[in-house]
Design goal:
The complex is a heterodimer of chains A (about 240) and B (about 325).
Chain A (H helix, E strand, L loop, with lengths): L1 E10 L2 E11 L4 E5 L6 H9 L6 E6 L2 E2 L5 H4 L4 E4 L11 H8 L3 H5 L1 H11 L1 H5 L10 H13 L5 E5 L7 H18 L2 E6 L2 H7 L2 E6 L2 E7 H6 L1 H8 L2
Helix pairs in contact in A: 3-7
Chain B lengths: L2 H37 L6 H16 L4 H32 L17 H23 L14 E4 L2 E4 H23 L1 H11 L1 H6 L4 H23 L9 H16 L4 H21 L5 H15 L13
Antiparallel strand pairs in B: 1-2
Helix pairs in contact in B: 1-5, 1-8, 1-9, 1-10, 2-3, 2-4, 2-8, 2-9, 3-8, 5-6, 5-8, 6-8, 9-10, 9-11, 10-11
The chains are: A alpha/beta (about 240), B mainly alpha (about 325).
Amino acid sequence: MLRIESLEVAYGGLRALDGVSIEVAQGQFVAVVGPNGAGKTTLFRAISGTVSPAGGRISYDGHDLLALPAARRAHMGIAHVPEGRQMFPSMTVFENLEMGAYTDAGRARWRETLELVFQLFPVLQERKGQLAGTLSGGEQQMLAIGRGLASAPRLLMLDEPSMGLAPAVADTIFERIQQIHREHGITVLLVEQRVAEALESCDLGYVLETGHVVMQGTHDALIADERVKKAYLGL
Amino acid sequence: MGELGWFAIDFLQALITGLLVGGTYALMCVGLGMIFGVMRVVNFAQGDFLMLGMYAAYYVATALGVMAVLGPYVGPVMAGLLAGPAVFVVGWLLHRFLIGRVTGVAAVGAEAEGHYAQIILTLGIALVLQNGGLILFGSLPLSIPTPMSRESWEIWEFLVNQARTVSFGVAIVVALLLYAFLKRTPLGKSMRAAADNPEAALYMGIDVDRCHRTAFALGCAITAIAGGLIASTQSFQPYIGFDFVITMYAGVVLGGLGSILGAFWGGMTIGLVQQLSALMLPFQLQNTAIFVVFLLIIFFRPHGMFGRSAERT
């Protein structure tokens, strides 16, 4: 579904991504983990088109994604839930969700997805008339995910959904993400610093360090790997 | 009637005139506020779009014969409204070929987010429009010849100028239409989203550059309509934009930068202060009064009347 081949991104002289290759197949849950500054967010921005790569290829459903302007990419069925939630703070919760459904697919399935979002995150229904900027961090993250779902995506990309959240809230968020993947058949690409939680639910994982993929493998292989255990899982 | 009674009547008269004048000021501030709110671009040429609106209304009214067809009462109003679409096209083209190159997605990563280039560019456009106007329209002051500007309705003790009243009504209707457009239509909502968070808007599949172009052209058009309406109450020449651009900015900042509702009330406040100050101060000090009130409001509410007190997330 999504194939990234030897992607290179540089900011000035700094190489943020240096030959990264990642593949996501339809229906999979793929996690990209790694420490701060590994290039995880840059990877997502390259996929969404807010950063232009210096080299490499990104294909999505056989289309050359890099040839498409950023604003068209959401229309291909890619939902990007960005780091730090990125609300539309002066718009209501409901209007934020409506903006998520800006794509044709989102508009066509609006009622259905809205019901799903409210079922996953009932608090959003309670607060639908409230300005998004006044929500708590956890609620904002729920809204960010709900907004992503509202576009009726085939690929949901989540950038650090647990960032800045209390552990209990982060756990709820992770549960919901698994639920979205399992029960609704949406392909998930997750980027996380909380390695244990991210690897727990994935089919396939990549470990990214300073712009390189240093390890990749299935869920079982990574969990069992001594280096992963030591460096990330604290075992 | 005693001294106090006369003062009360003068005061109410100034209040009425201030409200009427404030209506058109509010509309022109809304145009500027819209451009700043969506694009975060400081547009120095806004006063000159007001000037273009005045000339567009004048030529639509006279040369295109709208006044001959619709008469001296409906004609000027229609001409003022038609200045909108005319200047919309100008704004759209300017954004397409000039402004768009230093704003929006093109400005990402530029020095100071492209603000240096934007300031120089809009200042340049302002100069070209002023001097181009001088060549095209001449330096002779003009105004749309309508009997409304001299006629007043007499209501109890007060004189209510007809041209100003009609302009006020039209300005309010246009502002309300814009408000409904931004609140209710998909394009309007996507423009608000692009204003709130351009990066997230891109992730939603919103074409941010198209939103900017629409906002710029619409902002120019709204200010031009205000100009077209003012054109039947006062005379103008190609340099008139300069007189207005400062007060326009005062209004927008007063209301709270980035808030279109704020721009409306900011403009209204400017109109009121200008007229009320004439009660006590000589005519030449009107602008001084505006800036004293401006400083007072900014002193007590640094983000303006409707500004966000919290930083954007």
